[in-house]
Amino acid sequence: MFAREAMPDVIAPGQNASGFVLTHREGGAKFVRAGFVSLGQRFEFRFVIQLSSKLYAAQNVDFNALPSAGENIDLAGLRAKLEALPCCTSNKESNRSGDPLNLVIVGNGADAIFPFIERGWRLDEPLDIHSVLRTISAFIFGTEYTTSPISPLYVFGRPQDIALQKARNNISLRNHLRVWRAPFTVEAQGVWVGQISRDIGTKLTTQSWSFTTHRISPEVDQDRYYLLQDLLLTGEAYRFGFARGVGLSSPTNPRTNLGFDPYVTDGLRVVVFLGPRQYVTDKVEFIDWERPPP
Q1: What pTM value is reported for the model?
Q2: Using one digit for the tens of pLDDT, what is the confidence trace for 181-230?
């Protein structure tokens, strides 16, 4: 039946077609890329299909209700804004610092999310009875959970707008990131400020509903570089650079996050501009603001 009703591989000019396509089982939202070829030219359309079931935490965020961009700035203005941001995320009360804000993504709509999906990053589920039970099961049996909840951290007075993760086959091991839409744009594009770190295990805690929490790798700059490499491989990153703002954290004087995990960093934020076109890696523009130490 599926072979008979599948979407045809070739659709003739001026014709319509419909049919089944294969996707993962989870509901929530589907990220669709449709490519067309005409007279030697290739056109691509990208869109998100919202399903009736809201699987992902980001689907519960009213993006229209977020503070609107107060101003549109140029590159020099962006550098100044990023250097003036807090060094780190915080708890809800804003009286303790969390993971360092070492990531900035510039892009609008689908341009800002599809490169992550293409490289295997997954959205997280909200914290509810379903995800609690599934998380506990994954912790006990050491199994994978590729859309497991990501705990809230705070920037601009609110928890993350979007969280993404690239999990391994064990729930204790994953790369994950959180981003918040900034209250300004650059060159008429959205700015997303965030943090990325890598979970390397779990530990007991009284501060979590499951009495466990993840431990992050102390080398957070490695995770920053990993994401930069991941986005460059998509061909959709057309400009990148590094900005100050995090502050130095050295092996002899490390800072800690909300879970009291120490981390070290050169104090820079990676800034990546994303667009729909395909860019050859050696043609990507480098913004010569700061250079990480060798």
Answers
A1: 0.90
A2: 999 999 999 999 999 999 987 655 555 555 556 788 999 999 999 999 99
Q: Residue 221 contacts by C-beta under 8 Å, 6 or more apart in sequence?
A: 102, 264, 265, 266, 268, 292
Q: Are 70 and 184 in contact (CB under 8 A)?
A: yes
Q: Give the residue from 104, 215, 117 showing the smallest Cα distance to 164.
A: 117
> Residue 130: in which H helix or E strand, if any?
helix 129-141
The string of DSSP letters for 72-105 reads EE-HHHHHHHHHHS-SEEE-TTS-SEEEE--EEE
Outline where DSSP puts E strands in the chain: 29-38, 41-50, 72-73, 88-90, 97-100, 103-106, 122-123, 154-155, 158-159, 162-167, 173-186, 189-204, 212-216, 237-244, 255-256, 262-263, 268-274, 285-287
Count of other CB atoms within 10 angstroms of residue 214? 23
